[in-house]
Amino acid sequence: CARCVKNAKFFKIPLLSWANGCWIGSTPAELAGLTYLEELVIARAHTTKCWVKLNQGKGPLAQRAASGNVCIHPHEITDLATRLPRPISTLYDEIAVMFVSNDQPALPDIFKRTPFLVRRGRILKALNWLKGHNRFYYDIEIDEDALKDYPDE
């Protein structure tokens, strides 16, 4: 990338390089396939806020054909979470979704196969892996009470 080339010209190790300990290799199975919201609830800090507008698709693949707009705004980090996952109620402060449809009400089933899906088992597996393998997560406490509020698979 351009940043790496610039650093190489001045004989500096690029900040996000393998040589600087920032390359983890292929994505571990425990972290692969997490949805946007699952990543959000296991993050120790958030740098953005997100607003989403979805328009319903048509036909048998309607859910996969949903389209819309996403606005992401910078957000100041004030502290790092020490207990994860964050309570599900905090998602109301982190993301807003507006579902637009001409002919159907927005029912909870609409969100079952979207980036807004959260699964308790996936969250727990990801947190256990991060706690054991990521130096920034070794000291977190897994909040079993908050985890109970998340839906099953």
Structure classification: alpha/beta
Tally of helical runs: 5
Q: What is the radius of gyration computed over CA atoms, rounded to a whole number of angstroms? A: 19 Å
Number of strands: 5
Which strand-content bin applies to the residues?
15-25%
Largest sheet: 3 strands, mixed
Shape designation: globular
Helix content: 10-25%
The SSE string, one letter per element, is HHEEEHEHEH
Overall pLDDT score:
78
Poorly predicted regions are: none
The end-to-end distance, rounded to whole angstroms, is 39 Å
* Largest sheet, spatial ordering of strands: 2-1-4
If you had to describe this structure to a student in words, what would you say it looks like?
The protein has 5 helices and 5 strands, in the order H-H-E-E-E-H-E-H-E-H. Helix content is 25%, strand content 17%. The N and C termini lie far apart (39 Å). Helix 2 packs across helix 4. A 3-stranded mixed beta sheet has the order 2-1-4. A two-stranded parallel sheet has the order 3-5. It is an alpha/beta fold.
